[in-house]
Amino acid sequence: MKSAKYVFLFIGDGMSIPQRMMTDEYLQRTEKRGLLINQLECQGLTRTSAANAFITDSAASGTAIACGEKTNNGRIGMDASGKNKLVSSAEVARDNGRKVGIVTSVTINHATPAAFYGHNVSRGNYYQLGLDLIASGFDYFGGGGIAQANKEDDPLYKGDIYELAKEAGYTVSRNREGFQKINKDSGKVLSFGAADALPYAIDMSEDDLCLADFTRQAIEVIDNPEGFFLMVEGGKIDWGCHANDAATTLKEVIDFDNAVKVAYDFYEKNPEDTLIVVTGDHETGGLTLGFAGTGYRTQIETLGAQKYSGGVMANKIKEQKAESLEELKPLINEMTGMVFAVDGEYKKGGLNLSKVDEQKLQDIFDKNQKDGKFTGHSALSKALVLMLNNKSTVAWTTGAHTALPVSTSAQGVNAQLFSNMLDNTDISKGIKQVVQK
Ligand SMILES: [Zn+2]
After folding, report:
1. 112 Cα–ligand 1 center, Å
2. pLDDT at position 385, please?
């Protein structure tokens, strides 16, 4: 087996076939291009189940993808018994003299990234996973910050994780100014764009750092003659799907694809030495392309009319302090592209709201009143997102994960290891082989 000097593993959290196809079709219709990840040379399917459940969580699937063994939902880098530590592909890479980088758009000690350096019976022990992060000695951690970094009541509390990281020799940056100072001579690095998760791509401003920025910086820091292993997680694809928010989800998938593009550019310069693997850890939301109310017609491109994530829309509705639905109509139109009837004339198709739609919104407005004030901004935002999704011919079945398999794609050295129908543990087994000396 030929090893690959430079190994990239991209994990779209909650990204399965529907998320990829929805985004691909959206890009085909709006930009006449598809997702890069759907064009890589090897394409296969991957089963995602946990040791104790057909529907996995991100801890068990992250552990399977990182360590090559099925475990129970909730466990990080530990076997199903909860007694034995497992070894991740990132640790194998480190022990073979490579530099290692871990990047995510959610907090760096969240389940998926933690599965590559952490060992804990519970994904909820964020502080302890933060200690594991430092103990790993990996070379680069970037993206979202450390959750519960200073949890003083943790039984293993030793001090603030950021401070402990500095004591361990890490250069620590927690904002854009710090980000710009980091380069290949910075030594080991923690580089975060937010205290918690990064903003959703759909809500980002010019000043926000995105997944591609951290991927680029990680490569700069860990590129060296002995080779590297870099794991990049698009963690908020999952969050968009938990919220059943298709527009937010597809912008996250595009953001993720842009990060893969950074690795692909690197691959094109080093095609004989590079492997890129792209997978998902499970499906989230039971997303489907097609809706009972719209038959065989599809209109995925109109998801582009949504300007913000559901959460930001709820805040904007709240700020308006509206006393009637009427007052909110211009804002709703601006945020979603959906069109209210004029003079009681309800138009059909497109993003026109029907009489039934409008009555639903009116009911939410009327039912969520306290002391003469509208308090249902979240419920209204959720209803608007759902209406826009269904008009755009996509639908959801759950706010949780599902047992659908995911797509796995690969390009470069030994990419064929990742074709065909795999188990998620096979991803780890393949990567552990190619990160040998
Ligand atoms: Zn999830």
Report:
1. 10
2. 98
